Amino acid sequence: xxxxxxxxxGSKASKPASDGFFLDVRCSQCGEQFHLYINKSWExxxxxxxxxxxxxxxxxxIFGVGCKNRMQVHMKFDAHKKLVSKQIENGExxxx
Length: 96
Ligand SMILES: [Zn+2]
Known about the structure:
alpha+beta; single chain; 2 helices; 7 strands
């Protein structure tokens, strides 16, 4: 009985993460490109609006190995974790 339960939970945990997206950015100094996976369930932070609703945001610092440039990514999401706006400093978004 317990073994059966454990295997059920195991298969649930190993399913591919669907709640996320890829973030492609390029360093404005050396041109290095980064291909990052953002997991919306883990990496988004809650933002409590004055009207009581909850929106989400992401702040990410990205830096490469051979370069001192640090890129700062700011993204805003609505209550359904849908992207509303994005900004980047010291780099640029790569449109696929
Ligand atoms: Zn760089």
